[in-house]
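In response to reviewer comment 3 from the previous cycle, which asked for concrete evidence that the modeling workflow produces usable outputs, we include below a single protein chain processed end to end. The sequence was submitted unchanged, and the resulting structure tokens are shown without manual editing.
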Amino acid sequence: MRILLVAMGSSIHTARWIDQISDQGWDIHLFPSMDLHISQDLRNLTIHDCVMHDPNIDSSVRQCGAWPWPFPFRGRGRVDLNLKRLRRLPIPLLIANRSRRLARVIRKIRPDIVHSMEIQHAGYLTLDAKRELGNAFPIWFVSIWGSDIYYFGRFREHAERIRAVLANCNYYNCECHRDVALARTFGFKGKVFPAMPIAGFDLPRVTQFREAGAVSARRLILLKGYQTWAGRAIVGLRAIALCAGHLNNYRVAIYSASPDVTEAATLVSQTTGIPIEFIPFSSHDDMLRLHGRARIHIGLSITDGISVSFLEAIVMGAFPIQSCTACADEWIIDGQTGLIVPPEDPELIAAAIRRAVSDDALVDNAAEINMKLARERLDYAAIKEQVVSMYQEIWKDNLQSR
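The workflow returned the following structure tokens.
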């Protein structure tokens, strides 16, 4: 089976998905949907992109390289090398020709399946390539990430393109049951695979990272530090400040904090006396260890799918306080195994924090129930089996239609 994935090459989500199929003996290719950087976590695949190359190779090859990854570059590291080359490339022309380059790769390698992971970059790009190739286009499988339809589908210019993507693809996969219904609303008539996370967890290994003892004995509050077009970390900081009187002996750790979050958190710490630390970029294992020391994890955004940090909290015992925009209601019982809050209401978020720090039985019982849920729905081997079976089903359908 030859699979061409069109996806964000720098994303850990892409790498974790590919890791689940990299041992099947399939011929896996990646066309980066937008990135200038490729994750070092990718393994056992060929990457197609004309800006990622060894400058010592003949220039005719450099026009559109296809490299087995990881590629043993000589001298400087891959990231620096790519950025150096990109400074000399006409970026607008590069972007304009991207769909043509994708179409050229499809003609050359003739994949059995083209799989677009995410719509706003990979899906739109693949749609343009399909329009160029017409009936010669292979079977098209689309996976969406949390905000692809739920958020962007509210904007007319995106809604029209989302409908076009869903009208032209054959198979569909998503993280949330919410997004199955949305895809049908936007006109998808093909095969829908069951909603599932992008990847699971090696539970016997990662649960060893959990701090021993009851979760209620932990005195760390973990805050996701995204303050972006979607993230609302500063609202979380305002909520923490509002309930400072209930947080004696607690400390707060913020990860992935942007500069404005760092500044706001410094002021909150100075005003309230709550110790706040900032977690630098860390490995996945280190992030799991951090969750394994936290009593509470707070994740706030105006749009999301199944937030990976929310799933990490479930696995590691941290009590999740999650915004109502992230399909948390498909995983936890509000008020019993977590608390679901509006992402922009610091008063209600503060009330949730107060409840989570004052009710030991609540957080201990939640940790026990959520661990059972993790074993049922987040086991790596089980999710990998589902991913492999999806491709096998598409492959079988493809053979029968020939």
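The chain has two domains: 2-200+380-401, 203-377. We consider this sufficient to address the reviewer's concern, and the full set will be provided in the supplementary archive.
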